[in-house]
Design brief:
It is built from 22 helices and 13 strands. It is of the alpha+beta class. The strands form four sheets. It has a six-stranded mixed β-sheet. It has a three-stranded antiparallel β-sheet with strand order 3-4-5. The relative contact order is 0.06.
């Protein structure tokens, strides 16, 4: 009898595993036949199991979370009717390029639905989830609310934020942490894509612009100035989301000893060589004669750096025409997918291309460079490559180069070479199978950096781009022209 019971137990386990695998295979499509789903459940599938198969972003999600991610309300209703736990929490695995490529614990179906927002499907899903008592201000293990998740995701847009706020999301709620919290505007600022429209909407609704903990008061205007996020910085000025006068700490330490000796916004913008924000601060009424505690005025600091452009700007409130054109271009709504940086130094690296060319910091100097990370298994990468090659041929020469770094595994190296040869691409490419360089630079596939002739990062794009479009040609040509001065 014992042997028979053991055999039956083994059979039950194997059957449950097989039916659960079948259920998840159906769910991978996002819109499965509900009759087949019902049959899998009836035949013993575990509807509260966690996904462990081949689709990376689904890893760790239960069936209800997968249904929520796809915005499939009928599917979710069927699962709940069959006793699936609607209030269960899971680890949300953010895929490369969609957030921070790490796990977020204790996420409800509401947070997952928001993260994978779809204008046509998700509102109805959220209506269903809210009707079933899921908390629109509920926090995960990391302390983020659904509104914060929306701001971290590449899928979401202004419609997402408006929906959440109109349905009770608290714009003033800070991320709950041991030491304090972060404003929702912080997540706009650090997003991989432009969230300036969302930020302005949230400012209008009263969102605070500081990050508070037990040690420091991080000011988001200062962070925006430091990272060259000028659209955000100008919004903070417009809505007066900043500390008046001097502040004790401006966000990120500048010196190796974690100290900072410029703690007035105008001084700080001068220190960061952010000409656009210096002009914006002057226009907002900040004076070049304003002094910090040491007695140094903003003009004194500019004179100390011997920056003629900065000195003239402080005296005249005018930028050189080419520099003004650059800021007008980069701060326009045409480049919402592009993240601009204020001359960030590129990290040291060295790799040999398949053509035998040494790619390193020194090889980048003296030319404007498009540095792209890609893979043969990435559909978006393959989609943008023809335009990248066309741009290389259109602007190529001594002033502009395209370098593409593949992150395919070593065993797929031949596939990389075959792909490049088959498409007759002309740009230089290299392979980074261990992802040593990729891990240092990028969080997205595809991920692209534009470097100026000094080898400094001036712009970054996460996701696919039509590089041969008029606007992207204009952007690259403007960088080349600026560097020609």
């Amino acid at each position: 009898m014992k042997i028979i019971l053991n055999i039956l137990l083994i059979f039950t386990i194997l059957n449950t595993t097989a039916q659960t695998d079948k259920l998840f295979t159906l769910l991978e499509t996002g819109n499965p036949n509900l009759g087949e789903v019902k049959a899998a459940i009836k035949n013993g599938a575990n509807i509260n199991a966690e996904y462990t198969e081949k689709v990376d972003w689904m890893y760790g999600l239960s069936p209800v979370h997968i249904a929520a991610a796809f915005g499939n309300v009928p599917l979710l209703e069927l699962l709940v009717e069959n006793k699936a736990d609607l209030h269960t929490t899971v680890k949300l695995q953010c895929p490369d390029g969609y957030c921070c490529a790490e796990q977020h614990h204790n996420c409800t179906p509401l947070q997952v639905a928001v993260f994978y927002w779809n204008d046509n499907k998700t509102p109805a899903m959220l209506d269903y989830l809210l009707k079933n008592k899921l908390d629109i201000n509920g926090i995960c293990y990391g302390g983020q609310t659904p509104l914060m998740y929306a701001l971290m995701s590449l899928h979401t847009n202004l419609n997402t934020i408006k929906y959440l706020v109109e349905h009770g999301a608290d714009v003033k709620k800070l991320r709950s942490t041991t030491n304090g919290g972060e404003s929702v505007l912080y997540y706009c600022l650090i997003s991989e894509v432009d969230k300036s429209k969302e930020a302005e909407y949230l400012m209008q609704k009263g969102a605070p612009a500081v990050v508070v903990d037990n040690y420091d008061k991080w000011d988001l205007l200062a962070q925006a100035i430091y990272f060259g996020e000028n659209q955000f910085a100008k919004l903070f000025l417009k809505y007066k989301k900043y500390e008046q006068g001097e502040i004790d700490y401006l966000g990120y330490p500048i010196n190796d000893d974690n100290s900072i000796n410029v703690n007035n916004y105008l001084h700080f913008a001068i220190y960061c060589k952010n000409y656009s924000m210096v002009k914006a601060l002057l226009d907002a009424g900040f004076s070049p004669d304003s002094k910090i505690k040491s007695g140094q005025s903003a003009l004194d600091l500019a004179n100390e750096t011997a920056d003629k452009t900065m000195i003239n700007l402080l005296k005249t409130k005018q930028l050189p025409v080419k520099l003004d054109n650059w800021y007008n271009l980069t701060e326009s709504s045409d480049y919402t997918q592009v993240k601009f940086r204020s001359e960030t130094e590129i990290k040291p690296f060295s790799i040999k291309s398949t053509q035998g060319v040494n790619l390193n910091n020194a090889s980048f100097k003296g030319k404007v460079v498009l540095l792209n990370f890609w893979a043969t298994w990435c559909g978006y990468c393959l989609q943008e490559m023809p335009s990248m090659d066309a741009l290389a041929k259109h602007l190529g020469g001594t002033s502009f180069k395209v370098f593409a770094v593949s992150v395919d595994n070593q065993e797929d190296r031949s596939a990389v070479d075959e792909f490049i040869k088959k498409n007759n691409y002309s740009f230089v490419y290299a392979c980074d199978p261990d992802k040593k360089i990729f891990d240092e630079y990028s969080s997205a596939i595809p991920g692209t950096y534009l470097l100026d002739k000094q080898g400094k990062i001036v712009a970054r794009v996460d996701g696919a781009m039509d590089w041969n479009s008029d606007k992207m040609r204009k952007l690259v040509e403007t960088i080349i022209q600026l560097d020609a001065e």
